[in-house]
Amino acid sequence: MRIRSFKFWTAIALALSVAALLPLFQVVVVEPAFFRLVYEDGQPAQNIRVEQAWKEYSLEFWRQAEHVDDTITSDNNGFVALPPRAIRISALQLVLAEMRDRIAGISPHSSYGPHSYLICRGSVSCYSRIPVDVRDSHNTVVVKK
Q1: What's the rounded Cα separation, in Å, for the pair 49 and 45?
Q2: pLDDT surpassing 90 at residue 126
Q3: Of the spans 1-5, 39-43, 114-118, which averages the highest pLDDT?
């Protein structure tokens, strides 16, 4: 009877451990954003290749690199639509992230929370920090030739 009970509780503990490690929760890091790229003279910057980078520092503290999407191009009117960016995390990551944020909040040099930015690629340059907490934001980004 004891061996059977031990096996039962071992199986329960194993199942809970696996469940704690499975990435079951989807977290939106960056809401959808809309930008209009214009040259310094006000003309729309057509067909400009842009790169979006994003990372949730609190929840992805083990990951050094940012997520990057470099397949985005402005349309004929200079508009760029960025989709929402999400990651999947486990319950254990949520607990560890909360503990890390409590400790990291002490240091003025630590990074935590969501961050995202947009960079122009090719023969032009531009940069814009993307507001991660504002839904459907409309921003104008100046592109330099």
Answers
A1: 10
A2: no
A3: 39-43
Inter-CA distances, 13 with 4, 8, 36, 88, 94, Å:
14, 9, 53, 23, 19
DSSP letter for 17, please.
Answer: H
Single-letter amino acid code for the residue at 112: Y
Handedness of CA 36, 41, 44, 47 (dihedral sign): negative
CA distance 125 to 143: 6
Query: Cα–Cα distance between 29 and 72 in angstroms, integer?
Result: 18
For the entire predicted model, the pTM comes to 0.74
**Average pLDDT rounded to a whole number, residues 116-145:** 77
What secondary structure, in 3-state letters, does 34-91 show? EEEEEECCCCECCCCEEEEEEEECCCCCCCCCCEEEEEEECCCCCEEEECCEEEEECH
CA-closest candidate to residue 115, choices 75, 78, 63, 79: 63
